[in-house]
Q: What sequence folds into this?
C-alpha cells in the first residue's frame, strides 16, 4: 500500500519511528494538535521519538527549537560496558578526592558556623557519603579486555554442594536487551567451554585483516543466588530515570512495577526463563498465557505482600517496600553523577531510561542494568495503568521545562509534576556539602540551594527534601 502523503504547512509536526509505545506517544502528540509525519528525513519536526538512534537525526537537530528522544551518547549509561566503565571511573576518582574535599569544606564553613562546629562535622561525613560500587553493583568482568578476562578465568572457582551451586555467573552481551544472548555459567565445565569459545573467536579475529565484524562484547557478572522471592518466584523492580533536560539538567525518578517469573525459583534450573524476569523472556514460557497477569505486580500489591509476609518475621518497618525507593534514588543519582560530565548536552535532548533492581533475601538492593528505550507495552492490567501515566508525565515535564527554558523563565515549580520525583535540578547551583535544616533554609533564602519544594511554593523543607539534598551532593 502506498504511504499517505505527509502533511505540510506550519505544523507543529512530530515523527515517531518504531512500535514501542507508539499508541501512547502518538495519541499524546495528536491530542495537542500536532500532526504526524512519516518521512524520517524531514527536519521541520517539533518532536522526534525513535527506538534506535540515527546519526542523521542529530546532525539536523536544532537545539532550543526541537525535542529529540534519546541522548546521542546515552550508551555510557544504557549499555552494560558503558555503565560499568562510568561507575568504575566515578568510584575511582571520587574515592580519592572525597575525603580531602569534605575536610576542606568543613574547615572553611566552620568559621561561618563556629557555634555548631561539632554538629556540622558530623553531618558532613554522614550526609555526604558516597556508596562504594560493590555496595550496589555485582562483581563484573569485561570479556573484551584481556587482563579482566584472565582475571576472571584464573580467579573463578565454582563449588557444587549437594543442594545448591555456589558462585554462579551470568554472561551478558553489552549491546542487546530483552534478555537476548544471556546465559549462565553454572559449573566448572561451563566456564571451561566458555573460555575455549572465547579463545577460538579471538584467534579467528586475529587472523582477519579487517577490523570490521568484531565479536559481540560481553560482560560476566556474579549471579545473585539468594534473591528475595514473592510466592516462591524470582522478581525484579522496574523503575524509571527521566532526564527531562540536559541544558540545564533536570533529572527525575519514578517507581514502576514488579516483574516476576512464571515458574518457582530454582537456582539449579537450566531454563533461562527461571532466571530472567522480563516479559520478553517470560512469553517463551508455556505457562505465560495462563499466568500473564501474575508476572506483573503493582507497587501497591508488592508493598502489601511484603508487609504481610516479611514485616514481622524479618523485623521490617511497615511499608518497607515503599521506603526502598529512597535507596534506588540514591543509586540512580550516583549513576547520574558518574555520567553528568560525559553526556551530550543540548536544549531539547531528553531520555526515559528503565532501571532494573534486584532485592536479595537480606533486603539489599542491587542495580542490574539501565535500559534505553524501555518496553512501553501494555499487555497486562498493571502495565495499562503504569506505562501510559509514566510516558504522559515524562512528556509533560519535558515540554514544560523545554518551553520555560526557551522563554528564559524560572523552571521551578513544575505544574506538570505528579508521580515523578525531582532528584537533581541544574537551574540553581547545587550545594557542595549537605547542611542541617537551618542551614538549608538559609541557603534557600540566598537562592543557592538545589532542594525543590514539590507542589508548593513555600520554603518549608521536609525530611524527603533533606534526604534528596544529601543524594544530590553525594558525589
A:
Amino acid at each position: 500500500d502506498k504511504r499517505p502523503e505527509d502533511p505540510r504547512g506550519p505544523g507543529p509536526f512530530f515523527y515517531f519511528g518504531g512500535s514501542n509505545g507508539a499508541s501512547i506517544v502518538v495519541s499524546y502528540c495528536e491530542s495537542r494538535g500536532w500532526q504526524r509525519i512519516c518521512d524520517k528525513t524531514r527536519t521541520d519536526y517539533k518532536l522526534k521519538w525513535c527506538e534506535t538512534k540515527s546519526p542523521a537525526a542529530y546532525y539536523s537537530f536544532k537545539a532550543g527549537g526541537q525535542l529529540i528522544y534519546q541522548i546521542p551518547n546515552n550508551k555510557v549509561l544504557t549499555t552494560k560496558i558503558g555503565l560499568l566503565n562510568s561507575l568504575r571511573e566515578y568510584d575511582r576518582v571520587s574515592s580519592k578526592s572525597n575525603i580531602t574535599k569534605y575536610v576542606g569544606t568543613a574547615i572553611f564553613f566552620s568559621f561561618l558556623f563556629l557555634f555548631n562546629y561539632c554538629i556540622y562535622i558530623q553531618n558532613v561525613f554522614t550526609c555526604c557519603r558516597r556508596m562504594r560500587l560493590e555496595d550496589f553493583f555485582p562483581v563484573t568482568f569485561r570479556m573484551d579486555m584481556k587482563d579482566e578476562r584472565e582475571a576472571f578465568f584464573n580467579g573463578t572457582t565454582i563449588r557444587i554442594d549437594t543442594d545448591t551451586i555456589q558462585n554462579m555467573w551470568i554472561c551478558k552481551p553489552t549491546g542487546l536487551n530483552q534478555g537476548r544472548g544471556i546465559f549462565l555459567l553454572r559449573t566448572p565445565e561451563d566456564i571451561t567451554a566458555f573460555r575455549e569459545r572465547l579463545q577460538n573467536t579471538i584467534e579467528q579475529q586475529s587472523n582477519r585483516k579487517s577490523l570490521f565484524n568484531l565479536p559481540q562484547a560481553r560482560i560476566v557478572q556474579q549471579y545473585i543466588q539468594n534473591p528475595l522471592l514473592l510466592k516462591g518466584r524470582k522478581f525484579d523492580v522496574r523503575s524509571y530515570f527521566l532526564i527531562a533536560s540536559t541544558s540545564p539538567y533536570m533529572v527525575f525518578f519514578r517507581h514502576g512495577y514488579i516483574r516476576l517469573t512464571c515458574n518457582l525459583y530454582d537456582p539449579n534450573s537450566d531454563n533461562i526463563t527461571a532466571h530472567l524476569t522480563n516479559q520478553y523472556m517470560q512469553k517463551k514460557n508455556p505457562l505465560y498465557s495462563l499466568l500473564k497477569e501474575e508476572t506483573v505486580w503493582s507497587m501497591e500489591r508488592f508493598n502489601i505482600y511484603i508487609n504481610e509476609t516479611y514485616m514481622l518475621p524479618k523485623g521490617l518497618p511497615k511499608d518497607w517496600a515503599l521506603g526502598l525507593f529512597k535507596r534506588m534514588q540514591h543509586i540512580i543519582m550516583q549513576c547520574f553523577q558518574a555520567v553528568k560530565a560525559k553526556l551530550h548536552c543540548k536544549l531539547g535532548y531528553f531520555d526515559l531510561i528503565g532501571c532494573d533492581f534486584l532485592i536479595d533475601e537480606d533486603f539489599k538492593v542491587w542495580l542490574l542494568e539501565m535500559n534505553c528505550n524501555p518496553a512501553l507495552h501494555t499487555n497486562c492490567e498493571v502495565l495499562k495503568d503504569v506505562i501510559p501515566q509514566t510516558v504522559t508525565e515524562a512528556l509533560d515535564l519535558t515540554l514544560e521545562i523545554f518551553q520555560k527554558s526557551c522563554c528564559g523563565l524560572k523552571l521551578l515549580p513544575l505544574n506538570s509534576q505528579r508521580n515523578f520525583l525531582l532528584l537533581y535540578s541544574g537551574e540553581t547551583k547545587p550545594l557542595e556539602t549537605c547542611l542541617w535544616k537551618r542551614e538549608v533554609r538559609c541557603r534557600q533564602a540566598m537562592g543557592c540551594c538545589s532542594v525543590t519544594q514539590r507542589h508548593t511554593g513555600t520554603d518549608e523543607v521536609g525530611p524527603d527534601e533533606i534526604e534528596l539534598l544529601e543524594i544530590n551532593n553525594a558525589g
About this structure: Residues 102-128, 160-165, 429-475 have pLDDT under 50 and may be disordered.
